[in-house]
Amino acid sequence: MNREKAKLVQMEVCATAKAMADQGLTAGTWGNIAGRIDDTYMVITPSGMDYSKLVPENMVIVNMNTLEYEGDLKPSIE
Fold it and tell me: What confidence score (pLDDT) does residue 51 get?
């Protein structure tokens, strides 16, 4: 996995989640935003976190083949 691209996708997913929250397009912690890094990995918002409080490092990197993820935060279940 390209770590630089992963960081860029984390920033994009975070910015999109915050913009949606600012525009009233989300309800609480429901829903998810995701972005693809490559054919194996994606970035997704974490489960149960208020979008307005997210930072890029909160975005979860998930292996789409094994469903394993990095970090302490769980990915959204959608």
Answer: 87
Nearest to 45 by CA among 24, 71, 23: 71
pLDDT at res. 44: 96
pTM of the model: 0.91
- Measured between alpha carbons, how far is 54 from 14 in angstroms, rounded to an integer? 7
Instruction: Say how far apart CA 58 and CA 75 lie, in whole Å.
Output: 10
Candidates 4, 68, 70, 78; catalytic one? 78
Taking alpha carbons only, the member of 40, 39, 20 closest to residue 30 is 20
Cα separation of 78 and 45, whole Å? Answer: 10
Question: Can 78 be counted among the known catalytic residues?
Answer: yes
